[in-house]
Amino acid sequence: MFRQFLLGQRPAELSMGTVHARSLDPLPMHGPELGVQADDIDAPEMDQEPKQEVLENKDVVVQQVHIDGLGRTKEDLLTYEISDVFQAKNLIDVMRKSHEARQKLLRLGIFRKVEVVIDTSRGEDALPNGLDVTFEVTELRRMTGSYNTMVGNNEGSMVLGLKLPNVLGRAEKLTFQFSYGTKETSYGLSFFKPQPGNFERNITLNVYKVTGQFPWSSLRETDRGISAELSFPVWKTSQTLKWEGVWRELGCLARTASFPIREESGHSLKSSLSHGMVIDTRNSSILPRKGGLLKIHQELAGYTGGDASFLKEDFEIQLNKTLFWDSVLSASLWGGLLLPIGDKPTSIADRFYLGGPTSIRGFSMYSMGPQSEGDYLGGEAYWAGGLHLYTPLPFRPGMGGFGDLFRTHFFLNAGNLCNLNYGEGPQAHLKKLAECIRWSYGLGIVLRLGNIARLELNYCIPMGVQSGDRICDGVQFGAGIRFL
Amino acid sequence: MVCRRYTNKAAEPWPENATLYQPLKEDQILLSDCASSLAVQAYLRMCGLPVQVFCRANAEYMSPSGKIPFIHVGNQVVSELGPIVQFTKAKGHSLSDGLDDVQRAEMKAYMELVNNMLLTAELYIQWCDDSTATEISRPRYSSPYSWPLNKILAYQKQWEVRRKMNAIGWGGKTLEQVYEDVSQCCQALSQRLGTQSYFFNKQPTELDALVFGHLFTILTTRLTSTELAERVKSYSNLLSFCRRIEQTYFEDKSS
Questions:
Q1: Where are the beta strands (DSSP E) in B51-168?
Q2: Which of A179, A322, B10, B106 matches a 20 to 30 Å C-alpha distance to A474?
Q3: At A272, which helix (H) or strand (E)?
Q4: pTM here?
Q5: Residues A81, A84, A85, A89: what is their CA dihedral angle, to the nearest 10 degrees?
Q6: 3-state DSSP helix/strand/coil % of chain A, to nearest 5
Q7: Is A407 in contact with A397 (CB distance < 8 Å)?
Q8: Which conformational region is residue A241 in: left (phi greater than 0), alpha (psi within -120 to 50 degrees), or beta?
Q9: Cα angle at A450 between A446 and A453, to 5 degrees?
Q10: Can you tell me the mean pLDDT for B120-125?
Q11: Is pLDDT above 60 for A28?
Q12: Which 3 state secondary structure label does DSSP give B240?
């Protein structure tokens, strides 16, 4: 007598597929892409069967674990992920550990689906309480391609993407993205390799050429660069070490660009080492309900070659708390500092910008702070804070379905962006950042796009506007990944 | 009915803080750019318009047309001698007002000759002659940048100039032929100048500024061989012409 337990997909949740929102940042994708979104998977509910009472107390031994359906994947990669299954002592444990192993196999990003079959042992050396666990996997195709057309900012472009998952058999991934536009062309090639047995430790190599047009500064920038990035977890944090070499070319976007922007035109080479640390305990990156985020990033340029020489620090903090009636209070704080090393002044390509629907709402995109004849030059130090109250839509239309993607929010944003004179002390700097604070408040509707991006439609009232800032009071629309 | 009031920008007087931008003098600037910059400086001095010279490593990229020198006057940025002459003319300063139509056409023709012959020869010698390119042009052009950007930019510029030379038919010329062209150009200029002080009567024009810029730079720039300077030196009236302009307009420099 045997019973076959099939732990497979739960059709209602997983077959709805994934919603990929396009990253607005043209750089190539970072890190692994999961075919399944992490917070869509809940712990499985155990089907209550009448016979389970008897089996639960039974000690079992997992004798064999098979993986069927491997093509190019190397087996040594997978032994780490499934080794835990052998530790299970009773049936519930086997089911739990098999499910965990299935999650681990899926997060490698090399299988389209994984099904688990648990059966009693067969064969000559089968024990009476022995079990065989089989993972039936379907590998992803060798190469997947995508083709999009994008229109925006007076430019149209076609984007071709090629992805080769599991290219050498150990969950390496090669991604290529090429964008051909009416004005600019960009491309990026990225190679990702995790450590076998330790997927969170991985290395990514990138080669890219990215062009951007920044009408708020009348500036055009072309970056050609290579980078090598090492990621590893330390306790609860995720650490990243990166070396990047970029050839930057700056130019004026229009003949009417102001002279300070014209002075920034030309070529420069930046070779920098950077370190980043992220602690993320939120339950979701878009519209989280609880948890917090701490991101600290520092970059040191100039000591490994290149023309640019500076030390750059920036941080991001976010805290969320669910209040009564399904509403969420969220507070966030951003800040950054750019310290030039040596006599050369900082380049506009390294400075910070502030303002717009993704940071201080009520102001035009990146149109705050030092400027010359309407072209914004960016600043060397900034801080920005936001306080939000998210509530469900009034009248709760379409509860449980479409309506859940929308939230209303009431917000208060404040911040400042300026240049610091590094001859003065920190007291003078704090004073400078504290005077002439820009702030705004308002309310709006937020739409969640998949798990990556969100859209906002807000009514904003900007205050504390300094001369030279460009505001967008009234209705403002914003789309992006990272919001204050 | 809509009334528009047009402000005549050209009517604004020449400001005190006009500036001229060129590449770094000591380490970076090359023969052709130095000649063009000196021509513009001479022209402005002849007009009596004060201008301050700033050296920037990225002057070539700052320029709206990609060529140096360029001047920053008030709110406007103008590059190259031709447009600068037009610009000053609109502000009421001109050196060629006294010329009649025939003379003006002749002046334009000689300026074309200098641009097509002398300037092109300078570019050829700088970038198409391997020894000059390797020893002088590429190191100087890329001196403000660090490796590997310096190599990339230098070779990119060299490739661009060589492509242009091929397009105008100079790609197949030898160095000797280029020197011959320079000699012929100098001969034409020398004949036109004759024994006069300047090319047209007693007053200098933009042609004088242009010729001075190129010849003076050729005479005072050290290249891998002195052949080019020798060719110019063989015309004594051109030599005294250069000396005269230097003494008249650049006195503070030589003192």
A1: 52-55, 70-73, 76-79
A2: A322
A3: strand A266-280
A4: 0.82
A5: -170
A6: 15, 50, 35
A7: no
A8: beta
A9: 55
A10: 93
A11: no
A12: helix
Specify the pLDDT at position B86: 93
Distance separating alpha carbons of residues A190 and A206, to the nearest angstrom? 4
B8 exposed, middle or buried (CB, 10 Å; 0-12, 13-18, 19+)?
exposed
Contact B158, B127 (CB under 8 A): yes
Q: Is the pLDDT score of A469 beyond 50? A: yes
Tell me which residue has tokens 């950077």: A274
Residue A38 has pLDDT above 60, yes or no: no
Helix/strand/coil percent split, chain B, to 5: 60, 5, 35
Of A462, A365, A463, A381, give the one whose Cα is nearest residue A416.
Answer: A381
Torsion of CA A421, A424, A429, A430, to 10 degrees: 180
- The answer to whether the beta carbons of residues B107 and B52 sit under 8 Å apart is no
d(C-alpha A275, C-alpha A229), whole Å: 10
Which chain B residues have a beta carbon less than 8 Å from that of A268?
145, 149
Contact A68, A134 (CB under 8 A): yes
- Amino acid present at B37: S
Interface test with B, best of A258, A267, A375 (most B CBs within 10 A): A267
DSSP characters over A344-397: SPPPTTTSB---STTSSTTB-TT--SSEETTEE--BSEEEEEEEEEEEPPTT-T
Could you read off the pLDDT of A44-59 as tens digits, one per residue? 444 444 444 455 567 8
**ipTM exceeds 0.90, yes or no:** no
**Residues 222 through 261 of chain A touching chain B, CB cutoff 8 Å:** 247, 250-252, 255, 259
Got the DSSP string for A43-69? PPPPP--TTHHHHHT-B-EEEEEEEE-
Which contacts (CB < 8 Å, 24+ apart) does range B97-105 have? Answer: B98/B200, B98/B201, B98/B203, B99/B200, B99/B205, B103/B200
Buried b vs exposed e over B56-89: b needs ≥16 C-beta within 10 Å? bbbbbbbbbeeebbbbbbeeebbbbbeebbeebb
Query: Cα separation of A99 and A93, whole Å?
Result: 10
* Whole-number CA gyration radius for chain A: 26
What is the 3-class SS of B152-195, one letter each residue? Answer: HHHHHHHHHHHHHHHHCCCCCCCHHHHHHHHHHHHHHHHHHHCC
Identify the burial level of B104 via C-beta atoms within 10 angstroms of its C-beta, where 0-12 means exposed, 13-18 middle and 19 or more buried.
middle
A339's CB contacts (< 8 A; 6+ apart) are A310, A311, A312, A313, A380, A422
User: By the 8 A CB rule, do A136 and A69 touch?
Assistant: yes
Q: Are A454 and A21 in contact (CB under 8 A)?
A: no
Contacts of B147 in chain A (CB under 8 A): 305
Does B253 have pLDDT greater than 90?
no
DSSP A216-242: TTTEEEEEEEEEEEEEEEETTEEEEEE
| CA neighbor of B218 nearest in space, from B233, B206, B240, B198 | B233
In eight-state DSSP terms, residue A90 is B
Chain B residue at shortest CA distance from A261: B62
Nearest to B143 by CA among B60, B26, B62: B26
Residues near A353 by Cβ (< 8 Å), separated by ≥ 6?
A216, A366, A368, A369, A376, A378, A379, A417
| Integer-rounded Cα radius of gyration of chain B | 19
Contact B146 A305 (CB under 8 A): yes
Please report how many Cα atoms fall inside a 13 Å half-sphere around the Cα of residue A472, on the Cβ side. 21
Q: Are A441 and A459 in contact (CB under 8 A)?
A: no
Say which residue the tokens 């309310």 belong to: A443
Extract the tokens encoding B129. 């002659």
Residue of B56, B146, B147, B155 to mutate when probing chain A, most A C-beta within 10 A? B146
Residue appearing with tokens 């005269």 = B244
Q: How far apart are CA A73 and CA A189, in angstroms?
A: 22
Nearest C-alpha neighbor of B80 from the set B59, B57, B104, B105: B59
Rounded-to-integer distance, Cα A33 and Cα A146, Å: 15
